[in-house]
Amino acid sequence: MIEIKNLNKAYNLGEENGCEVLKGINLTIHDGEMTAIMGASGAGKSTLLHILSCIDRYDNGEYLLDGELIGRMGDARMAEIRNEKMGIVMQDFALIEDFTALENVMMPLDFSAKKRRKKEKRNMALEALEAVSMKEYAGKPVCKLSGGQKQRVAIARGLVNRPEILFADEPTGALDSVTSGEIMKLLRTLNEKGTTMVIVTHDRLVAESCDRIIKIVDGRVQDIA
Ligand SMILES: Nc1ncnc2c1ncn2[C@@H]1O[C@H](COP(=O)(O)OP(=O)(O)OP(=O)(O)O)[C@@H](O)[C@H]1O
To answer: Which key words are in the record (predicted)?
Structure first.
């Protein structure tokens, strides 16, 4: 499904604060896999995840998604791919605290190229909340939820478009070990139902519960376990 060849990415090269972040990444992710991306702080994990999830662009190399070359695409097609195929769970939830769980989960549907009636969007959001066992909290403002509940809502928002692949940046980073275990169980259940998962994590236990671990060291893939 995902094939990355000799991919490079730098920020502000030539400037004082410039840096080369990804330096020739090669990797393949197959349909149905649950993959962890590990590496020290600053190694380039989030940068890689943002490129994989079509939020950010790479400088050179190749990124093929289902055989389609991402690099030469215009912004509109990239947004379309993101909407059609991908779900994204951002670091630290990135939820709107004053909005209800339901309103947060419905948001990606408002940005989708596919026009849907409000009722259909609401039903899709309720279904996503049900998939993470949060349907009964649909009407609660996010600021009134616990950390684990917020993470579930963030996952529901990532799932609402029924993506083929879900990208999650530190989905357990802000959680205690029990809640973290529950979230990983939930992600595994969703994976078993067919969603490919790519998870950035610092936590070895979380990584070991995935099918494989890709370790990024200084912008390169050091090993794939
Ligand atoms: N938008 C940006 N502009 C300039 N530099 C950036 C930008 N985003 C990231 N960087 C730099 O790129 C490097 C890699 O950052 P990245 O966030 O990908 O690392 P990470 O492995 O995810 O780190 P962490 O585990 O701390 O989240 C860091 O040195 C960071 O300062």
So the answer is: ATP-binding, Nucleotide-binding, Transport
Pocket of ligand 1 (CB under 6 A): 11-12, 19, 21, 39, 41-47
- 3-state class of 19 per DSSP? strand
ipTM rounded to 2 decimals: 0.95
The CA–CA distances, whole Å, from 219 to 9, 17, 22, 136, 164 equal 9, 17, 4, 43, 27
CA of 191 to the centre of ligand 1 (A): 28
CA separation for the pair 22, 160 (Å, rounded): 30
Over residues 16-67, the pLDDT tens digits come to 878 899 999 999 999 999 999 999 998 999 999 999 999 999 999 999 999 9
- Pairing status of strand 196-200 against strand 34-38: parallel
Domain boundaries, the chain: 32-46+75-224
Give 43 Cα–ligand 1 centroid separation in angstroms: 7
Look up the CATH architecture of domain 32-46+75-224.
3-Layer(aba) Sandwich (3.40)
Tokens matching residue 196: 């490919």
Instruction: Report d(CA 203, CA 33) in Å as an integer.
Output: 19
CA angle 11, 17, 19 (to 5 degrees): 40
Which token pair is 91?
């670091």
Residues 155-181 have pLDDT tens digits of 999 999 999 999 999 998 888 888 889
Residue-wise pLDDT tens digits, 56-110 = 999 999 999 999 999 888 998 998 899 889 999 988 888 999 999 999 999 999 8
